[in-house]
Amino acid sequence: MDTKKWIKMALIDFEEYYKLYFQRDLLNFVGQIPVDGNKHYDRNEFNIQYFFLTPQYKYLEIIPHDRQGLFAVALYWTVLVDQTFYSHYRHSYETFQRKTLYPKFIGNCTAPSLMSSECGHHQHPRKILQAINDTADKGNRFDFEREIFKKYENSKTRENIEYFPILEQARQVIKDEIKDYFENHQPEISWTDFWSKCEQEL
Questions:
Q1: Which of 55, 146, 169, 194 is least enclosed, having the fewest CB within 10 Å?
Q2: Are 148 and 49 within 8 A, CB to CB?
Q3: Which long-range contacts (CB under 8 A, 24 or more apart) does 134-139 make?
Q4: pLDDT tens digits for range 66-124
Q5: Digit-coded pLDDT (tens) for 132-174
Q6: What pTM, to 2 d.p., does this model score?
């Protein structure tokens, strides 16, 4: 297939996925994760630990395989936008959080206390794209509350998830979404300035 034609198809596919399927896939993905597994946080917070995405666990299988790469890229951009807002516009973050309800991406819960645990620290969203094909990560090490997640451990080998071509093509879709959001919901913030800050985090 002609490269330009493939790129155009990828862009259309991601835009359609992001607008029609991503929210549903995200809710299904998070909805199956035991609430007790995020014990360090309020039960209403939307937290995704690193190992939830790895092949060693079944959580990602709730999403059809042909949408898993799209999901990972959409989640990557969503977390990047959320982290960028918090880092640079913290004074307005409460409004942004209330309107978007974007998830947080954190490390694995590896210890009883929050600050000594990896889940006490937000992870760069590029680790989302690492996690989906990370066959080495063991989740909650030292068997810290492993029983909570044990039934979700995956005994099967998961196919490698391709995402790289989607990642770049999603950029324009997310840029347009950012423009629309700020112009309609928080116009006091320049969407072009915000987008520039997002690009610095890539």
A1: 146
A2: no
A3: 134/54, 134/55, 135/54, 135/55, 135/56, 137/50, 137/51, 137/54, 137/56, 137/108, 138/51, 138/56, 139/51, 139/54, 139/56, 139/57, 139/108
A4: 999 999 999 999 999 999 999 999 999 999 999 999 999 998 877 666 666 777 788 99
A5: 999 998 777 666 667 788 888 888 888 899 999 898 889 999 9
A6: 0.89
Domain ranges of the chain: 3-200
Amino acid, res. 60: L
Answer whether 107's CB lies under 8 Å from 50's CB.
Answer: yes
Measured between alpha carbons, how far is 153 from 112 in angstroms, rounded to an integer? 21
Mean pLDDT of 42-54: 83
Residue of 38, 174, 55, 44 whose CA lies nearest to 98: 44
Residue type at 176 in one-letter notation: D
Amino acid residing at 136: A
